[in-house]
Amino acid sequence: MADRLIVKGAREHNLRGVDLDLPRDSLIVFTGLSGSGKSSLAFDTIFAEGQRRYVESLSAYARQFLGQMDKPDVDFIEGLSPAVSIDQKSTNRNPRSTVGTITEVYDYLRLLYARAGTPHCPVCGERIARQTPQQIVDQVLAMEEGIRFLVLAPVVRTRKGEFADLFDKLNAQGYSRVRVDGVVHSLADPPKLKKQEKHDIEVVVDRLTVKVAAKQRLTDSVETALNLADGIVVLEFPDDRDEHDHPREQRFSEKLACPNGHPLAVDDLEPRSFSFNSPYGACPECVGLGIRKEVDPDLVVPDPERTLAEGAVAPWSAGHTAEYFTRMMAGLGEELGFDVDTPWRKLPAKARKAILEGSDHQVHVRYRNRYGRTRSYYADFEGVLAFLQRKMEQTESEQMKERYEGFMRDIPCPVCEGTRLKPEILAVSLAAGDRGAKSIAEVCELSISDCADFLNALTLGPREQAIAGQVLKEIQSRLGFLLDVGLEYLSLSRAAATLSGGEAQRIRLATQIGSGLVGVLYVLDEPSIGLHQRDNRRLIETLTRLRALGNTLIVVEHDEDTIAHADWIVDIGPGAGEHGGQIVHSGTYQELLANENSITGAYLSGRESIATPTHRRVADRKRQLTVVGAREHNLRDIDVSFPLGVLTSVTGVSGSGKSTLVNDILAAVLANRLNGARQVPGRHTRVNGIDQLDKLVRVDQSPIGRTPRSNPATYTGVFDKIRTLFAATTEAKVRGYQPGRFSFNVKGGRCEACTGDGTIKIEMNFLPDVYVPCEVCQGARYNRETLEVHYKGKTISEVLDMSIEEACEFFEPISGIHRYLRTLVDVGLGYVRLGQPAPTLSGGEAQRVKLASELQKRSTGRTIYILDEPTTGLHFDDIRKLLSVINGLVDKGNTVIVIEHNLDVIKTADWIVDMGPEGGAEGGTVVAEGTPEDVAAVPESYTGKFLAEVVGRSTVPAAKPRAGRRRKVSA
Could you say which residue ranges form the zinc fingers (C4-type) (predicted)? Predict the structure, then answer.
């Protein structure tokens, strides 16, 4: 039985005692309707048990440091391997994480540059050489005679400890003073240092003055310091101080120094020297983040049509200080010849400059106090930009810091220009023939495909080749895996927080292949998300390669190609929620196609399909939204139009610029103009046509809440209406209960024993925490008195436990509640419980809850909806329902823009904007636009080639639709 994975009696969530027999070392696809139980079986049962068994095989000491998994509700699992989960929810949001760090490529690059890189002086560019003690002495004697200085030997650099023994040892050796953390102390009375803090300690070797007569003493002192501090000596000049009143220092190294005498601080190059997460390599200005916050005038004055009196200057328009700042601006106006009732746009340029940047002399402020008396005074006019910067630096309140940051945008650090590293480290390079020499930061800025080409072309001498050969092999191997999963357009410096869920998942997939593990069970959640059909083949080859290593892969997937290439397919259904949780099919692809009971098989075999529309809405060129001069990231200064009143699909290969165009530019501008947001849009010239819209609705896949107290009922607002309904019952009125009584989040009606959670957590130390039903309320969340109030025989707790479909029928007579619930059913969420905790919802489910929340609002016919891959996690049948809902929105006169790879959605769109032609630097233009039939006829369009197969039209040369105007890229 070692070649089989056997599951018996799986009952997690909606699973109905599932029995399953799967082949090991195979590519297995779990498919079925959304909510049918795929994730419950794959992740919450099989992965959870594999992980739990592995962790329990470790010692009790090790287990207390690891996240423990609950034992799933299953009778028996045999043939289970250690399990690794690769999902889309755990994207790293740390600003210090990049593609290079999470794939470990950057670790190997640091090693490569430390061992084979050539250091140069960041000032003159000369190659850095080692300095002898005599050269150091000559440089000191070349200074102006009479300058006083200390000769210091740095013996401890940023290390934790008390160092009492070191002080005793130095005292015994005859030294009398040390400098600790910048302060000189006598060794007769050394400082008491905190053990858990990092310290810098330098021995004061000598105190000297620059003069030729002291050459021998200086030489002896320098040699002593070099011996004491392992080749480094620091000179402190107490009479020469910087702007912070710190004495100037000059560092010399016996190991590396500039031949032209430029002062620099480079010790021997180590891998940590190239880390922006270490003080040895990080830029001191931005501490390795590569960015700093700067006040943005566009965010300070969001609406130029407003006057100063109406609050045109946003930071000075609210709160008790608004009147004070309006007086100040009125005083400035008297001096510069403007008044506060003039719109910002019409103010003279010198007036706008003075308000933003400040005035160099005092302004005369006049005002009437509450008694009607005129008062006046003179005051400095700081300017709103300097005011915000100062307040940001001074405040200790997180709330105020968040407010001030709302007027700022991230700009590249002016010192390191966004590279995160010290100038000395950026001056270390590797040469690659005619490709030139590049620093580690420049290599990380290249696309992954260009990075691989550069490293292949490196020109290394025999010594460097011997040192770096193995390191290069590891780097090329990892870059190759990233190329295999379709991520050639990313750069190693790309921040992890900016990756989509699909990109992050494929990066982790590539990392796992690079680890070379054998005999592991991998459980993946829709790895094809965000991937164009063109790149699907490479992803499937990557999965089969992982299987060929001797691993078992369970992939939760709806993609037709992936299902067709699987060794074994498990179709779970037949419906969703309570109507699912059973095995409809377990076998090969051909057997699935022939299975009459499988809705998946029906769509794959062609018995069911999503029809291509016979008539499309006609795009009106007079009613369109146009982004002019889009040039953020890889967009090439393009103009793109989106027709209003139709369904538009934005397509293109991964990295072609879809999200940058739609999310970073268009959606941000619309949010600011229509919804009063303060977002920073990507670089562009302008957006035309906004006056034809009155509201923006964005629907993405971020969670609807991060705590179990958030659920579909609370998010959509229907719970407020249900609580009001319960408060209106006779029993509630007799008892004087208000709607708040029926909330499990506040005191009064909730069970206080479990504070409304329904469960009690029992900590088990090195075993998993156990959650048991609350003994007082038995999991109902409410106290006994609240549960005595019934509506149509149901308590508030029983209503929350209903499926949305069941609740929709229950509340049918109450139109205000029924309308909310009907929209949730319409988007395919009838199987979800009304009170289901938000963290248990998938990304696709969360997106549909948001969509339903917007759908139940009254349509104005002038709303624009922007959806980012709405088909994520959806089965073919769910997509059909979603398209029906989306088309319903458009039929009411609204505009819908979707970013999508799914051909079923693309073929039903009225208009397509296809980006490309490739990803990254090779993308950023509009390859084709028009109806699906128009795009299918454009041979340059990858989307068109796949579209031609489904719209019944072959790809033939034809008149190319008007593409976004391409112009020279401008900054």
Answer: 751-777
